[in-house]
Amino acid sequence: MGVDVQGKLRRALGSVKDHASIGKAMIYHHHGSFSDIEVAVVRATAHDDSPIDDKFMHEILFLVSNSPSSITFLAERISRRLGKTGDRLVALKTLLLIHRLLRGGNRGFEQQLRGAHFSGHLRLTTGWSLMSNTEPSVCFIHGYAAYLQERMGWMINQAGKLEPVMFQSMEVQFYEEKLIHTVLRRLPRCQILLDKVLDCSPSFEEVSPSDGLTQAAMSNTLKESFQVYAAFCEGVAALVNMFFDLKRPARALACNILKRAAKQTQELHRLYEHCKCKIMTIGNKNLEYPSVQIISIDHVLALEQLSSSEIQNVVGQKPPAILDDLTRSTKKMMQTTSECESTTTTTTNTSLPTLFSCTLETKISKVWVVFDEEEPTESQVSVERLFIKGTHVSNLSQ
User: In the 8-state DSSP scheme, what is residue 374?
Assistant: First the structure.
């Protein structure tokens, strides 16, 4: 009974604080749209456990679209709200608002919000009182904030899929070099984001099933992880196919990537199975979980042992059996991924020893997002095509 009374008092005090914040915003920013933006942020992140009303997010997007220069003000108001609050619900709703704005705005708004983060105007750090709290629900907030920190480096492309923002580096002359360069840069980015998803999972397992806000946050995070995992599989397949075309330093980097992938696939498999078993606790029951292909560390170590020798450089030397198996495995994996994208059907296991111990059942949504800005440049399209269809150069290792 005492807990209920404390909860009611906390919500009542929070409501008073929200009304005070709204009053201050109207006084200090009585002209222009700044007042309306701050009021919308306060109302969207009110001191209650109700989900964020879509009308507040649409209102924020509308106000910012009419005043593009206000994006900096919006970022600072959100950062201030997150940094000053000691209330767990307000902090979580503020992070959810940031995630929704990243997912729901157009490409121009997404770029501006990302720019505000990189320039320091949008900060994803909670207040001291929450940072010192070790409750499972608060630990999830810390993990979710870390995920959004990394998520800021990703964008939604015109096909509605996540892809990392890649900055231009040194020019490469040949097709093969560009493919290798792209895979070795994109695949680690996929692994970093997947690690952030996994970091959220321990605290999430202890969250109450009645915590709807945490369920909504985890549901959005899981859905995005499915897309990243599909790109991760494509990158691993391309990396194995080109492995013996790499120079020795790049080959060592590839082995480290594959070792890390072996650990990640095991952890992802446990996370997805746990979430499927507790599907009633996840906000979205219609999530289409991929069947994670667990990478065998034994095959990775065998590949590393082969890379330490020069057998592949001997003229006329027949490639070792493990190389043939890995090549066939990655070809089949890419074929499976392609079939999943077009038909979302389930593939069957093969009897050959493969890099993966189970089949892939990734089902990818056929959502096409139309943006108002111009079409991507030819170079951007070519780089994307290189990464997704890396198996076109598999003949280089045969």
Answer: P
